[in-house]
Amino acid sequence: MSEEKIRMNVREGYAKVALQQRSCCGPSSSCCGSAKTADTIAQKVGYSNEDLAASPEGANLGLGCGNPVAIASLSLGETVLDLGAGPGFDCFLAARRVGETGKVIGVDMTPEMVARARETARKGDIRNIEFRLGEIEHLPVADNSVDVVLSNCVINLSPDKPQVFREAFRVLKNGGRLIVSDTVLLKPLPEFLQQSVEAYVGCVSGAMRRQEYIDTVEAAGFEDVHIVKETPFSLDCALNDPMARDAAGNLQVPEKQEVEGCLARILIHAIKREKNAVR
Ligand SMILES: C[S@@+](CC[C@H](N)C(=O)[O-])C[C@H]1O[C@@H](n2cnc3c(N)ncnc32)[C@H](O)[C@@H]1O
């Protein structure tokens, strides 16, 4: 698949998620089930009841694979950038921690997601957040302007992962932190998933090998790159993502068994120190 085709499929997939979930949350539908499912998924990947209570309605669609905000040690006044912010769940949690003197910027390339996140911020009158439309490979953010870069279950979707980490390095201030939750491969996926568009959009088949992931972050110039937490990512858990569910809907039991043990979700922490900047 070409890079453009990947972006198009990913954008179309998440546009549907943004719109479907929005209408599902209308008063007359059985949407409570969806909201509850998203909350259950979020709890499974590391969010607390307090996080869920603090997040505005509709911000959590159960699309993350970890809780990067929990290990970001955010302080009042800091500037935070979330790569692939989607409906803004992590942005809204971060905004409470950095306070009125801080700022959170969420970047996403799917217009429907950005519109949804902006609407949630508007409804909640949350003013220290800005959602920008853009690609994480070409961030609409100034050099050396951000204290913390977060990302949750997004970089696996990028057709140019080294470029994403170079961009994260560019926008971080000296001493800034990179905190990423993502899916990685522990062993190659079976052929039938490697070729599946739905599995790519569902955060499965775009994943890199774990060591390659760390090497890529280091190659962008980051230091102290380490995995804070690693959890096996069972197919059942991966299928929480609505896109991955589409991918695996027709899988038979032996095929499902082949996939088990291939994926993990990791939380990575790294630091930018200017002397190692890659120009
Ligand atoms: C699995 S969702 C995660 C959303 C959010 N981080 C969360 O945890 O709720 C992936 C999001 O990344 C966005 N995305 C994927 N690839 C992107 C890219 N190359 N540039 C910008 N956004 C991207 C999608 O539009 C989608 O909103």
Give the SSE layout:
Layout: H1 3-24, H2 32-44, H3 49-54, E1 79-83, H4 89-98, E2 103-108, H5 111-123, E3 129-133, E4 146-152, H6 161-171, E5 172-185, H7 191-194, H8 197-201, E6 208-209, H9 210-219, E7 223-232, H10 235-238, H11 242-248, H12 253-259, E8 263-271
Parallel strand pairs: 1-2, 1-4, 2-3, 4-5, 5-6
Antiparallel strand pairs: 5-8, 7-8
Helix pairs in contact: 1-5
The structure holds S-adenosylmethionine (SAM).
S-adenosylmethionine binds next to helix 1 and helix 4.
Task: Give a quick rundown of the structure.
The protein has twelve helices and eight strands. The chain is an alpha/beta fold and 279 residues long. Strands 1, 2, 3, 4, 5, 6, 7 and 8 form an eight-stranded mixed β-sheet that branches.
Task: Report on the architecture of this protein.
The chain has 279 residues and is an alpha/beta fold. It contains twelve helices and eight strands. The chain is globular and about 55 Å long. The two termini are 29 Å apart. Residues 22-33 have low confidence and may be disordered. The structure holds S-adenosylmethionine. The site of S-adenosylmethionine (SAM) has 24 residues, from helix 1 and helix 4. The site of S-adenosylmethionine has 24 residues, from helix 1 and helix 4.
